[in-house]
Amino acid sequence: MIKKIVLAYSGGLDTSVAIQWLKEKYNSEIIAFCADLGQGEDLDAIEEKALKTGASKVYIENLKEEFVKEYIFSMLRANAVYEGSYLLGTSIARPLIAKKQIEVAEKEGAEAVAHGATGKGNDQVRFELTYYALKPDIKVIAPWREWQFNSRQSLIEYSVRNNIPVTATREKPYSTDRNLFHISYEGGILEDPWEEPPSDMYTMIVPPENAPDKPVYIEISYEKGDPVAINNEIMSPATLLERLNSIAGENGIGRIDIVENRYVGIKSRGVYETPGGTVLHLAHRAIESITLDREITHLRDSLIPRYAELIYYGYWVSPERFALQNFIDDIQKDVNGTVRLKLYKGTCSVTGRKSPNSLYHPEFATFEAEDVYNQKDAEGFIKLNALRLKLRKLR
Question: For 375-384, what is each residue's pLDDT tens digit?
Fold first, then answer.
């Protein structure tokens, strides 16, 4: 018998229906847990909605600073990007939600946790791998894998019959997920990869054609691989990201439309807005370009796809991710300095970088006369490296 279930609750369609369905199915007390990750919603209204829908208690935790400092910045230090485009905004939020959900379950003495992720997507894996890694004996309930509903449309119809207020409609049935790092749009009218997303769908970024006609220049300062200031103004991690979201969003930066490979084997079309994150990704690579050794850079870059997969697949709490993170963080100790960027109508370009730990030396790089590099030395270097190529041809 399950007496208490802690549900990861967002106030959206799936989890709103889940509260009532779980009560009916398991005859249990439902405790709603809502993580404030900067989704910009009225959390008091979400709490009231959860209670009205049938939750006995609601936990709402402000996790914005922890989310940015311990999760997003850790990921950005690795330059993580999945399949060349996706900056992992949804993926990186799930392990933190799951971690805090387990903490609530332990505090409340709940036997089970539940989530609103579908049986076709990645989030079910991300939540559950984290649950089991942190509390191996926890009972996990995934309503989408059990209930009779087979589509979001059927959920909408159920919510209407049961007077459950929802934001999804028959006219705009796509699913969104927002946090301080990004917002995603999936499903519904976006399922045809040939169809252009509706122009009124976007929320964080203005269309590039409507962005200001004058470029904006900003400077981002770094300490040990983490951004700490914008234009010399030191800010907390969450405040810095919020500021960048505003600046980049106003200039139309950070929108992508991709078809990605889900962990479960299905291709999925996703549209994402990641304004501040797009700028930070570019800026971090720029400051690394003058502070990291070549072979260290190449070794780390060879690990980026694997690191990004671990986040996308849900293995944040895994020994292999911890090992990679330790390596990545160790090489960031000299990634200090400032990057200057130009933001203009959907583009972000680096216009300058400087660092007290710079490995870039103008006296070596110059095409003008200098005394520190003997160009004659390159001849033997080239011949030694050409030896295997010559022997192959001679064969």
Answer: 899 999 999 9
Catalytic annotation on 330?
Answer: no
- In the sheet that holds 267-273, the strands lie side by side as 175-178, 183-186, 267-273, 255-261
Residue-range domain boundaries for the chain: 4-172, 183-354
For the question of residue 334 being annotated catalytic, the response is: no
C-alpha to C-alpha distance for 7 and 28, rounded to whole angstroms? 12
Active-site residue identified among 36, 56, 175, 340 = 175
Which entry of 10, 14, 74, 159 is annotated as an active-site residue?
Answer: 14
Question: Which residue from 83, 121, 86 is spatially nearest to 256, judged by alpha carbons?
Answer: 86
Q: What is the dotted CATH code of the domain comprising 4-172?
A: 3.40.50.620
Domains 4-172 and 183-354 share a fold: no
Give the active site residue among 28, 74, 77, 123. Answer: 123
- Residue in 10, 16, 91, 94 annotated catalytic: 94
> How confident is the model over 252-290, as pLDDT tens digits?
999 999 999 999 999 999 999 999 999 999 999 999 999
Class of domain 183-354: alpha beta
> Quick check: is 293 catalytic?
no
Burial bucket for residue 254 (CB in 10 Å: 0-12, 13-18, 19+): buried
